[in-house]
Amino acid sequence: MSENLSWVLTDVENRIYVEDFSVNPSVLGPRAAAGCGGGWSITKTRLKGGVSDGVDVIDVNNGRLSFTVIPTRGMGFWHGSCDGNFIGWDSPARFPVHPNQINILEQGGLGWLKGFNECVVRCGCNSNGAPGIDRVRDNNGNIAEVMLTLHGKIALTPACYVKIEIIPGDPAEIVITGVMEESRCFCPQYRLTTRYSTFVGSNKLSFKDQVLNFADSPTEFMMLYHCNFGSPYLEGGSTMVAPVLEIAPRDARAAEDMDTWPSYRAPEAGYVEQCYFVDMGARADGTTLAMLRNAAGDKGTIVRWNKNQLPCFSQWKHTTGLNEGYVTGLEPATNYPNQKVFERERGRVVTLQAGQTYTIDMGLEFVSDKAGVAAIESEVKDVLGGRATKVDPQPVAKWSAI
User: Fold this and answer.
1) Which domains does the chain have, with CATH numbers?
2) Where are the alpha helices (DSSP H) in 294-358?
3) Residue 400 burial by CB count (10 A; 0-12/13-18/19+): exposed, middle or buried?
4) How many CB atoms lie within 10 A of CB 384?
5) Chain centroid to CA 49: how far?
6) Which pLDDT score is estimated for 141?
7) First to last CA, the chain
8) Is it the case that residue 355 has pLDDT exceeding 50?
9) Residue 357: how many CA atoms within 13 Å on its side-chain side?
10) How far apart are CA 276 and CA 265, in angstroms?
11) Of 201, 206, 157, 196, residue with least CA distance to 175
12) Can you say how many angstroms the Cα of residue 232 is from the centroid of all Cα atoms in its chain?
């Protein structure tokens, strides 16, 4: 069996940076390639021009599933393809936007949206959810008001360390590791290490995030995974299939369509977003899942996570015109995406002790036939275990500011 193969592409501390990189079985010697299988490739490039100037992208193809990770944007999962089906969504922000092109304070704290186009984007670490004013103790020990912008800063934080690995086996495993630090003087100090993993020929991708509080004092922590999907999984008649124990509309707008919360509309120009807050059922070990299934029931994209790590879930509907960003979000999180002060009052803001690491395990899976979709539907039924789904017709105080 061959030894693991690894390449460090970025290491700011040791002044290592590789602008262009490519590896596949054909460029490895026979000895190095032994046990790695065929049909896979990894390419790293730096984009030039426009709002993407200076953005690093890593393209991975395992022979069945391909995807792009963006180290410059918090190791976000941009888009991909499996069995010929596009993974992601067509955002009005068409290209990866370099963080230096974004003013997060624009439009009352909504500037983050200028670069919002990833299939999976992390929202955190100090805050996520709606922009608003928070009250914190400043470096002089006084209580001060600060503006928290939409969905925090980690998605706009470039990786300071990036490594690629090929782990031989049957099948071989492809691993991408990235490290980001969201920190500054007199503020919280987070180090996020993410490990993407897929196997050659697989229709699955997993990632493990570990968030370290490397300060000497406790600090608050929030994280939401904005998992976004458009066509071909999203269309008129698509359905979210999940072991829902309770669901409530975020606001009056979402309550308008409470009777049809599992299903989705065809593109509709000018559609105003709707969001639903969910308590999801899980197995005894905390594992759970949600699937977006197309109308014909022969395509599905599945998000997997552990409810012990991410106890909250939001279903975001934005079925607007195709040129306006036709998309839905399946969003596991530590909290609901309200203003931080509200979530803190409800006890949903995690406190990390000095030196503590918070671990999150996530997975994506893509099925391309009716049998695959039916198997996931059966799994969801088993997780629910005969428990009823409570549907709240109006927002509830435990989840929404009403």
Assistant:
1) 5-391 (2.70.98.10)
2) 340-345
3) buried
4) 18
5) 26
6) 82
7) 61
8) yes
9) 9
10) 15
11) 196
12) 19
Residue with tokens 């905390």: 286
Q: Which residue from 146, 145, 152 is spatially nearest to 335, judged by alpha carbons?
A: 152
The tokens of 314 are what?
A: 């939001």
Q: Residues 77-92: pLDDT tens digits?
A: 999 999 999 999 999 9
Which DSSP string do the residues of 323-365 spell out, in sequence order?
Answer: GG--EEEEEEESS-SS-HHHHHHTT-SEEEPTT-EEEEEEEEE
Q: What is the largest CA-CA distance in the chain?
A: 65
Two tokens at 37? Answer: 């299988």
| Token pair for 186 | 């007199």
Residue 2: per-residue pLDDT = 66
The tokens of 362 are what?
Answer: 């996530």
Helix (H, G, I), strand (E, B) or coil at 331: strand
b/e map of 39-61 (b: 16 or more CB within 10 Å)?
Answer: ebbbebeebeeebbeebbbbbbb
Section 42-46 average pLDDT: 98
- Binned at pLDDT 50, 70 and 90, residue 1 comes out as very low
Q: Give me the DSSP letters along 84-108.
A: TEEES---SS-SPPPGGG--TTHHH
Integer angstrom CA distances of residue 52 from 9, 68, 101, 346? 19, 14, 9, 39
CB 258 within 8 A of CB 391: yes
Average pLDDT, the chain: 96
Residues 6+ apart with CB under 8 A from 145: 133, 134, 135
Two tokens at 85?
């089906």
- Which tokens go with 311? 């106890």
pLDDT tens digit string along 52-105? 999 999 999 999 999 999 999 999 999 999 999 999 999 999 999 999 999 999
| 319 class by beta-carbon count within 10 Å (0-12 exposed, 13-18 middle, 19+ buried) | buried
Across residues 206-215, what is the average pLDDT?
98
Q: In angstroms, what CA-CA distances link 128 with 74, 108, 243, 290, 349? A: 14, 15, 25, 21, 10
For residue 244, the cross-strand partners are 280
Cα 243 from Cα 186, distance rounded (Å): 42
- Which amino acid appears at position 155 of this protein? A
Beta bridge pairs of residue 42: 23, 60
Q: 33: part of which helix (H) or strand (E)?
A: helix 30-33
Q: What is the pTM of this model?
A: 0.97
